[in-house]
Amino acid sequence: xxxxxxxxxxxxxxxxxxxxxxxxxxxxxxxxxxxxxxxxxxxxxxxxxxxxxxxxxxxxxxxxxxxxxxxxxxxxxxxxxxxxxxxxxxxxxxxxxxxxxxxxxxxxxxxxxxxxxxxxxxxxxxxxxxxxxxxxxxxxxxxxxxxxxxxxxxxxxxxxxxxxxxxxxxxxxxxxxxxxxxxxxxxxxxxxxxxxxxxxxxxxxxxxxxxxxxxxxxxxxxxxxxxxxxxxxxxxxxxxxxxxxxxxxxxxxxxx
Amino acid sequence: xxxxxxxxxxxxxxxxxxxxxxxxxxxxxxxxxxxxxxxxxxxxxxxxxxxxxxxxxxxxxxxxxxxxxxxxxxxxxxxxxxxxxxxxxxxxxxxxxxxxxxxxxxxxxxxxxxxxxxxxxxxxxxxxxxxxxxxxxxxxxxxxxxxxxxxxxxxxxxxxxxxxxxxxxxxxxxxxxxxxxxxxxxxxxxxxxxxxxxxxxxxxxxxxxxxxxxxxxxxxxxxxxxxxxxxxxxxxxx
Lengths: 256, 238
What we know:
Number of strands of chain A: 2
Oligomer: heterodimer
Low-confidence stretches of chain A: none
Order of helices and strands of chain B: EEEHEEHEHHHHEHEHEE
Structural class of chain A: mainly alpha
Number of helices of chain A: 9
Number of strands of chain B: 10
Largest interface: A-B, 27 and 34 residues
Largest sheet of chain A: 2 strands, antiparallel
C-alpha cells in the first residue's frame, strides 16, 4: 500500500513547521474570500499568492503539477461550454458556435480562482498529515462527528479497498471478465452491495470493540500542538494578503 | 471456592430469523481461573461473549459481573473497564492512526491524564514485546504484530479479566508461540475461546465445551499424543 495520498505532508519548510490548526485557519482565511472574487485582477493576484504558497512550502513540483493537471481537466470542460453558452457581445465564431466576451471572461475567472484555491489548499491543508487533521479540527472546536468521520474514513478505506480487491480476485479466479452485458452489470452491483454489507458489519464490530475499551462518544487525543510566534505572524500575513486582494477587488469595481 | 467475576444465569438469546442460539445457558468464571472454551462453529460462543460484554442484550437471563447484576448500559460501561476483550479480528479493534494512540485509547477513556496514559501504553507494549512500535501505523503491521498490539490495547487498561475470542485465527506458528509465552506471564483470570486444543492446553487450566446453546461441563483434560481419526482436531476422551 504505497499510496497514502499524503506525499505533501512530509516536508521541512516554514509552512510544515506551523501548527496544523494555524494552517487550517489560514486556509479558510484565504480560500473562502477567494471563492467569492468577481474581478479578473484580484483573481490574478490570488493566483500569484497561491503559487507563492506552493514555493514557500517547497512542495515536490511533479506532484503539484500532476494535481493541477487533474483539476484543469475540469476547467477545460468549462472552456468548452461556458464561452459559447454565456449571452453577451460576440468575440469569435467557430462554425455555428459563437464565443462571447462575457463567456471567455467568466471561464478565465473560474480558472484563475480554481488554481489559486487548489494551490493554497495543497500548501496549507495538504501538508497536514491525516493523523494530525482530526486533532487539529478538534482543537478548532469543529463538531466531534466530523472529526470522527474523517478519522474512520481514512483508517478503514484501505481495509474496504482490500476487501474489494479480494472479492475482485475471487471473481477473476472463477473466470469473470468484465464485458458490456447485463451479467457484468449485475455482478458489479452485487460486488458493491456486498461491500456495503461488509462495511456495515465491520462498523458494528469496530463500534463494539471501542465500547469494550470504554468509548462513550468522546475522543481523547494524545496529540498536542505547540504554537510559536511564527504562527501568529503567518495568520497576520494571510489576513493582510486577503485584505489586499479584497481591496483590489473593490477598487476595480469602483467601490473604493 | 473464590468469588465469580463473571456469571451468566439462564441466558436465552435468539437472532432474528435464525432460531435460538443460546438456550438457558449458565456460565461462571472465578477469580484467577483460566478457562478454555471450545465448540463447533455457530454454537454461540461469540454470542455468549458479546452478551457478557453487554454488546448484545439477551431475551432472558442475568449477567452478573464482579458480583453486580447488570441492569443497564451504565452498569456495563463501568464493568467493561475491568474486562479486557480481545476481538477475533484485530482490524476491528485497531482503528487509530498510530500504535501509541490505539494503546492509549483505553486508558484515556478510563480518565487517565495524557502522560499517565502514554506511560501505561509504553508499559503494555513492552509486556507484549513491541517496545519501539509507538509510531508505527497499525494497519501496516503483520497479522501477528496486529494481534499483539490489540492485546497491548487491553492490557494497558489493567483489566481484572481477559477474554480472548479465537486469538490464534490467522496467526503463524511463531506468532502463536509468542502469544502463549506472553499469556504465560499474565496471571489474571481468563477465558480463551479457541478451536485449537494445543493452544487451549498451553494457556488454560480447565476446558468447557459449548454445544446446542449450552455449556457442557466436560471435564476434558488435554493430553499429548499423536493419532489420526475423525475427531482428531477436537479435544476428546478415550
